[in-house]
TrEMBL record:
GO BP annotation list: cellular response to hydrogen peroxide; hydrogen peroxide catabolic process
Cofactor(s) for this UniProt protein: heme b
Keywords, ordered alphabetically: Heme, Hydrogen peroxide, Iron, Metal-binding, Oxidoreductase, Peroxidase, Signal
GO CC list: cytosol
UniProt cross-references to Pfam families, sorted A to Z: peroxidase
Family under the similarity heading: Belongs to the peroxidase family.
Domain Plant heme peroxidase family profile: 106-481
Catalytic reactions of this protein: 2 H2O2 = O2 + 2 H2O
Signal peptide boundaries: 1-17
Protein name: Plant heme peroxidase family profile domain-containing protein
Domain of life: Eukaryota
PANTHER family: CATALASE-PEROXIDASE (PTHR30555:SF0), HYDROPEROXIDASE I, BIFUNCTIONAL CATALASE-PEROXIDASE (PTHR30555)
Length: 484
């Protein structure tokens, strides 16, 4: 076993760095090479311990306004090595959605199960294995690589955990969205050890199997009685250790976006549709994850998903049918550094498209879904709930083949937007729908609730489980007074 582990280590050593430095100058600041993480987990590499005291003292001198300005500038500065979204949707180029998803996926690991907190962005373990391997985190290595420029500029004045959470908050604020306050003080971990209980996906062998139990499948599969037997099973909520993951173990940590597929005998099934994903059952899975595992109320859940999917887009504008990747778009050997050739994620492979734009911009595949949620994905707006409440949505396939939804009226003002089944769950559950209607009618209430929930999202973690812990301990906060 030890020898097999060494084999993996050797391969990683040889191929690490296949994404060229001149293409992505600060890539390695954002994502730690897998070989280094594995050595650190084995205890064979001495660590530079993060000096907490020094950091907290230094924070008092942090020029928050110039940090905000650096991130906002970067957000609008589309780079050839990872072009910003916007042009493909008739919008201006912006990394706002990407930075917001980065902060959400870093913070959304937070779990509150039976009063015990786990996960959260403090520690910045998303830079490390295993979080940087999770399918849910695809292409976030590029976002961290872009922010490496800001990290390079500010050096030890800002920890990665503070930078990732502040970048997401800045992205919202600088796009016209609501943000009330942000507090600094998060410290970084030296490796991803504390993320291992949250799940290791698809890894068959490494480190003599010490850390590499694959949690891809649940020990006890659960399907709704109305669900197709061939569809993904859920991890039953009563399985204790799986409450650290999401209601589905697929992708590992959040919610299964496609939702459950109905079986042909279920009420509402139609053989004429390209899919029969159920927003009603998806709502139960959203609640299972957001309320039972992450500790959010229904109101916070609706505000967070609605605000999150006001910005940015999904990426899956590539049809792999007939290619060798068709049945197996992801590497499941691992641990597999995302940028490494063979990881099938992003520019190193160029699985989609040809020439200079292979794997980039309109050829990016992250989740396999395709399209924006709103008409201006780079700017805060109120399309998300309005479109879901006023339009009829019909099932379609993305070019990649994922099950999603579009407006039935092809002349609608929202015709260019899309929805996931998990989005539509918010108008197919009585409690969620009442809140969605309230937000569609009262934008100020939506803004205020989203800003509060976002603050809580990026401030709670295993180390500081209460939303005001960072403020009361370190007192370095901004209310964005400098933003005009
Ligand atoms: C039911 C819960 C959720 C599901 C199933 C879900 C699913 C997804 C999926 C599939 C994508 C597309 C990724 C890609 O292809 O690039 C995405 C993107 C995104 N999500 Fe979510 N999400 C959820 C909740 C949230 C929340 C709570 C937030 C923030 C508060 C959020 C913020 C975003 C943003 C900003 C993007 C756009 C990324 C970009 O433009 O590159 N999501 N989400």
């Amino acid at each position: 076993m030890a020898l097999r582990g060494m084999g993996v280590l050797l391969i990683l050593w040889v191929t690490e760095g296949s994404m060229r430095d001149d293409d992505f100058p600060f890539y390695d600041l954002g994502t730690i090479p897998a070989w280094r993480d594995l050595r650190s987990l084995r205890g064979t590499q001495s660590q530079d311990q993060f000096d907490k005291e020094k950091y907290h003292k230094q924070l008092k001198e942090l020029d928050v306004q110039s940090l905000y300005e650096s991130i906002s500038r970067l957000m609008k500065d589309s780079k050839a090595f990872w072009p910003a979204d916007g042009p493909q949707d008739g919008d201006v180029a912006s990394y706002a959605g990407l930075f917001e998803r980065l902060a959400w996926h870093c913070s959304g690991t937070f779990r509150l199960v039976n009063g015990t907190a786990a996960g959260g962005c403090e520690g910045a373990r998303q830079r490390h294995w295993p979080e940087n391997e999770w399918r849910d985190n695809s292409n976030l290595d590029k976002a961290r690589g872009l922010l490496g420029q800001v990290k390079h500029e500010f050096g030890s004045q800002i920890s990665w955990s503070d930078l990732l959470t502040f970048a997401g908050t800045t992205a919202i604020k600088a796009s016209g969205g609501p943000a009330k306050k942000f507090c600094f003080g998060r410290v970084d971990d030296v490796n991803g050890k504390r993320s291992i209980p949250l799940g290791v996906e698809g890894v068959k062998e490494c480190l003599g199997n010490k850390f590499c139990k694959s949690d891809f499948e649940c020990p006890v599969a659960f399907r709704w009685p109305e669900q197709d037997e061939a569809d993904h099973a859920r991890c039953n909520l009563t399985q204790p250790h799986h409450r650290l993951q999401a209601s589905h173990s697929v992708g590992l940590i959040y919610v299964y976006p496609e939702g459950p597929e109905l079986k042909s005998s279920a009420k509402g099934y139609s053989a004429k549709q390209v899919h029969n994903r159920s927003p009603r059952f998806s709502a139960l899975e959203v609640r299972d994850t957001f309320k039972e595992r992450m500790g959010w109320t229904d109101r916070e859940t609706v505000a967070l998903i609605g605000g999150g999917h006001t910005m940015g887009r999904t990426h899956g504008n590539c049809n792999l049918t007939g290619t060798k990747w068709a049945s197996h778009p992801y590497n499941e050997v691992g641990p597999f550094f995302e940028a490494q050739a063979g990881a099938l994620r992003g520019p190193t492979d160029g699985t989609c498209g040809t020439g200079a734009s292979a794997g980039l911009a309109q050829n990016t595949v992250s989740s396999g879904f395709e399209g924006p949620w709103t008409r201006t994905p780079s700017q805060w707006n109120y399309d998300f709930f309005d479109a879901m409440l006023t339009e009829e949505w019909e099932p379609v396939k993305s070019p990649f083949g994922a099950d999603q939804w579009r407006t039935k009226s092809r002349h609608s003002t929202y015709a260019s937007t899309m929805r996931l089944t998990a989005d539509l769950s918010l108008v197919n559950d009585e409690t969620y729908a009442a809140i969605a209607r309230e937000y569609a009618a009262d934008h100020a209430k939506f803004d205020s609730d989203f800003a509060d929930a976002w603050y809580k999202l990026v401030h709670r973690s295993e180390d500081n489980p209460n939303e005001n812990d960072l403020e009361s301990k370190f007192g370095v906060c901004t209310r964005f007074e400098f933003v005009k």
